[in-house]
């Protein structure tokens, strides 16, 4: 038997059911249609309506709804003379065939409200109707401890006239984590099987609020590693509240491999492993982070990350690679010199001129339209997905169409000129030369946008702010960049630190990282704010941010769970393992096999993480989820395993050749074929000079197998083999007394296919 | 003849099983023979499977119901089929004018003329979801639901149980489609190959990985060497098993297991059409039926959305049959660009059917003739459908999306054939009486693949999946 925590489950009646009191169309009738799902995008809420009956999406435009319900179709939908026989009710109750089925039951409170409204003459919204200014859910939070399993929510609307009413029965509820907590249509929250925290979104009219339900893990935090910085303090504080003891701090070898992959996008080398093992100083971890940040590998790896979300792409491999190479180099150099992030963003947003010489123009080339430029800006740098608000009020957020177009206005005078072919001049006019490059320029005139529905002229307006006082001579994009960098900007720093948190901890404090709406709250808001504050105080210093994250104790926690924290997937009580990115994995395989992947059009020795754009062909990278740089979302990078990946690592020519080396029978056969075909081009996706030399080295190396295996393990895993592993490997070699080459090929094959190798842990 | 089993693999069959198929195995177990022996191994759980396969030919784009299997030549002018009608082998029933070959097989088919997938004119994407996921179910395609219940690879052959065959599976070097729109490869895979919330292991296997995937399916090592390496790998993994104490890396494990089975059991042969009798290939081949080079050169005016059409449908159907024989339970075959708006991007109805109709007619007919000849028509259910039908043509011969009627033809699978089910109303836009819906189609598929009574008592299946499989009502005339 479940015990409700709210013993006083008072059933407020939202508005007195007094037949005399006028029913408010906006505050009482429309919310019923929202609650019952009549005005969703799949039904009457879509642009063309459903079977001739349209409603405004989610009831965000009550004035329009009044027209649709009362006036359209010659007023046949409501019959004040006989309210209960109104078509609106006959359909909604299913008494007359209705594609959506019966949504309201006869005699229910909702039914009676609509009947009363019609009986009163189906009045439109009145000027005297109180206007909602905000809603409030109560309680705001509940930790489900002990036997408490349920919590009834109450939702209050605050009106402009200072009154407050219970609107629980007219409110929609939705949970972010079904498996942690469910919510009923009446707002009763029930804890479910999973542990952790869920956000319950409540929505009434255009307003939203959030209730947080937390189901603690039930462990006891007996000891914690000593906190090194504010990250540790804030994470550990939360773990204590949740009863979630963290895993132990990982060993040095694990840390070295983890941080080298995360900062430099590669495995540590054998000599790095040995140096780090020999270092006994207390601050060796911090020094390691500094060394990695100073290396060019850091810039390479993060340029790969930024290039993908900044759309540094070509449509086809035959397109000119110069502009994307230039943009890639620009990103990499900016990161290498640690350009402050606000400046980095400002230089992209305010770029003018031609691509190639002005590298960020590539971003404009891919987006072109003011609205598209604004949407990417919002998603990348403000953590806001505004796409929904283009056509209607954002259903889960406060943004309106006005906000959308006001922000778009910053780009309204931005002219993106695409390359044009040469044109013969008309009589008397000079010939128009071809342009080879995309260019960005500022058009003449004042930047404004016309609101598509209200036809109001909108000036450039920061999100949630006031229109700027722009003039025709100043590029409004400069004002946009300054607003972003303003220390009081509520989005900019939070978005970046959250994005970087996700890079190092697999899950954003807000996740997905570019959807930071009110109804998708951070799992540790205090920490997110503190990180943002730190980032602002350090003048948007990216390297400092990485250093702060990687030198925390939290980053050093082991991925191995203890008795309580295995189910934790959002509080960082352990390190969450993740598969190496496509590019990092390919480079790591090359490091172990001593093979070199050749990329078409790239200089010899280019590593996969250094590739400038999406069009350098590689089956390996495609199958392991390299992004196409066609969206501002990091989610484009595939991290899911697949059968095709497993087959490739088990059984592809590419891997076989990397492992077995150029001297392998397969490679020899291939060379023969190539010779036979003379100048035949290499088959797509398979590099020619692909063979690795590791096996040959191991075979000719006269040292004992123990030592050779140790070296191999240092390269692949940054650690020595355990006694059991050594025994297994030596036994394997013993089983093939006449085939040392084969034995080592099998060993490397097995190493590359282990989870330990393929994951950062 | 295709031998799917290597002799060394026989030890995985039970002794009795081996004796039963033994005589076949000696001569190399043929695919049909294998299909027959597919029951087996673990009878308690296998009892829930009816040992059948479904091939769904999806005419992506949504051809008009009137031009396919419901010409309505007796209706008023604006309702009638533009491409005319042909008499069929089913007395009283006619098909659209571009299906003369299929018309001769009509007595082996059942046409559903009151199949309605949704109200009004949904988008292509919404249509994909409605039809392939059986309407308002758990949002996973039928094939992935089947894979979830059956396991993602066949318990004996290692064949993925759910597959999708795009033109790229036949010609890996083909480059199709533009960068945007509902017919791009990306959107096609996203919707037609979706596993919804079931997880990627159950999404359909797509054998079109740019050529390399197919070559990766052929084991390059000796079996012994491969086994030996895998043993070493398991040893190393298990010595570090604390790394996966939470089971988060389990997905990778599952795929390694699948890859192992696929490789050891020689599944690759099923994807290799060269192993097929040349006469059979010729019977399926449709490459001469579509003026494909003309389309590619921009010879039609409808370059944008016509550019995922190919002349490979015949071979796609042949591969579908081979996969069924090797243990695949659900094969989705996609033929694209049946979208006839006549809006500059897409052709009008007549021109569209001139290009796409004869190939579909031939490919479906060749498939039906072939499975009949192989005695597989009771074992394989063919479904021909789309994401929706069309509105009546406008003055220029263009049509819009229309969900309230959608083409649907079924053949084989042990269902009752040789009938026309339901009817459209006079307008040609709605069902006369209550329509059949994607839920009914999903239930028909599940009743074909599963013994519903047995699957109900499977302890390992999540309840919502079980409910999706068992709750629906099949099209009553068929069962």
Structural features, described:
The complex is a heterodimer of chains A (761) and B (479). By secondary structure, chain A is α+β, with helices and mostly antiparallel strands. Among the domains of chain A are: 23-119, no CATH class; 132-215, Immunoglobulin-like (Sandwich), CATH 2.60.40.1080; 230-293 and 518-577, no CATH class; 579-760, no CATH class. Chain A contains 28 helices and 18 strands. Chain A has a four-stranded mixed β-sheet, with no helix packed on it. A four-stranded mixed β-sheet of chain A has the order 3-11-10-7. Chain A has a three-stranded antiparallel β-sheet with strand order 2-5-6, with no helix packed on it. In chain A, strand 15 and strand 16 (457-458) form a beta hairpin. In chain A, helix 8 packs antiparallel against helix 18 (542-550) and helix 21 (643-651) runs parallel beside helix 22. The longest helix of chain A has 15 residues, at 322-336. Residues 1-17 and 678-688 of chain A have low confidence and may be disordered. By secondary structure, chain B is α/β, with parallel strands linked by helices. Chain B has a single domain (7-14, 31-218, 266-470), classed as Alkaline Phosphatase, subunit A. Chain B has 20 helices and eleven strands. Chain B has helices at residues 15-26, 31-36, 43-46, 65-68, 100-103, 124-132, 142-150, 185-192, 212-216, 223-239, 250-264, 268-271, 278-284, 292-296, 303-306, 313-325, 349-373, 438-449, 452-455, 463-470; strands at residues 53-59, 85-87, 94-96, 109-112, 162-165, 330-335, 380-385, 389-390, 401-402, 408-412, 419-421. In chain B, the strands form three sheets. Chain B has a seven-stranded mixed β-sheet with strand order 5-6-1-7-10-4-11, sandwiched between helices. In chain B, strand 2 (85-87) and strand 3 (94-96) form a beta hairpin. Chain B is globular. Chains A and B meet through helix 20, helix 21, helix 22, helix 26 and helix 27 of A and helix 9, helix 10 and helix 11 of B.
